[in-house]
Design brief:
Strand order of the largest sheet of chain B: 3-2-1-4-5-8-6-7
Number of domains of chain B: 1
Largest sheet of chain A: 4 strands, antiparallel
Number of helices of chain B: 8
Strand content of chain B: 15-25%
Strand order of the largest sheet of chain A: 1-2-3-4
Helix content of chain B: 25-40%
CATH topology of chain B: Rossmann fold
Oligomer: heterodimer
Order of helices and strands of chain B: HHHEHEHEEHEHHEEE
Order of helices and strands of chain A: EEEE
Largest sheet of chain B: 8 strands, mixed
Helix content of chain A: under 10%
Radius of gyration of chain B: 16 Å
Strand content of chain A: 35-45%
CATH architecture of chain B: 3-Layer(aba) Sandwich
Distance between the termini of chain B: 20 Å
Shape of chain A: globular
Chain lengths: 54, 218
């Protein structure tokens, strides 16, 4: 997770974990500059730019 | 000169989501092509270096090459890549979600043909590579035997109907435009598909083999 950056502004992300075992299972990565949340589901961060998400 | 985009601003995701297992089976059904391409890629990868693959798919190349991180817009493919030990991230080449100067090398394996904006993607790769890091681009040469075969059958393929094929000079021009330098090239997959009955070796240059691997430095 520490290599990740916001796909838009490349800025730092704030990690919020809601479920964790050995690894982070569920949570979010938040970019304060863009005010965007990137979800982590089943351990996979979805870092698609917001306009490309379903 | 590279012309960009097949379908404007839309990454090719759906066919890979829908036909994920079919995609993955290709590697078993075309084992010698797969292994020949894998050996050619291995030529440019040094053990212990930190790599990332763009368009990692199900991890068929990243896993045996020891590439730790993979990105792809298709989550379903990424779930398979995760099972193969890859740290998978959903995302697109044009907007890489990584910090600058993070990787020793980046692999784009039969990926540029599906990327919407190749110029933007190459600029992004340049950003995330360490100084002197390398980009390794594996692609089917548009004017090779396989390139022409795929182009001819393009509309019938679930995947390649969305593809835009490039030839060597176009890829080099695109990489040069993104400030890459020191190009090296090798080729493999010689002859028609029926001729590939064993793992083929690779050799320098291009023009004879259908599959080209180009390495360029930041």
């Amino acid at each position: 997770m520490d290599i990740l950056a916001c796909p838009i502004c490349k800025g730092d992300l704030e990690l919020n974990v809601t479920e964790e075992t050995d690894e982070i299972i569920t949570g979010t990565l938040y970019c304060g500059k863009c005010d965007e949340y990137y979800p982590i589901e089943d351990g996979i961060p979805n870092m698609l730019p917001p306009d490309l998400r379903e | 000169m590279i012309r960009y985009g097949v379908v404007a601003n839309v990454p090719v995701i759906e066919p890979f989501e829908e036909y994920c297992s079919e995609y993955d089976q290709w590697f078993d059904e075309n084992r010698f092509i797969y292994l020949s391409e894998l050996e050619a890629l291995r030529h440019f990868i040094r053990a212990g270096e930190g790599g990332m693959e763009i368009g990692v798919g199900t991890g068929r190349f990243a896993a045996p090459l020891g590439i730790g991180v993979g990105i792809d817009p298709s989550r379903r493919m990424g779930e398979v890549a995760s099972e193969r030990g890859i740290s998978f991230v959903g995302g697109v080449a044009e907007s890489l979600p990584f910090r600058g100067e993070e990787f020793d090398f980046v692999l784009m394996m039969v990926t540029i043909c599906f990327v919407d904006d190749v110029k933007k993607a190459f600029d992004e790769v340049y950003r995330v590579l360490k100084v002197n890091g390398s980009l390794i681009v594996g692609f089917i040469d548009k004017y090779s035997f396989l390139g022409r075969t795929y182009l001819h059958k393009k509309e019938k393929s679930k995947f390649y109907r969305y593809a835009r094929f490039y030839w060597v000079d176009e890829v080099m021009a695109g990489l040069g435009g993104a400030r890459f330098h020191n190009f090296k090239m090798i080729q493999t997959i010689f002859g028609g598909l029926e001729d590939i009955t064993a793992v083929q070796s690779f050799r320098e240059g291009h023009g004879d083999g259908s599959f080209v691997v180009m390495q360029a430095l930041k």
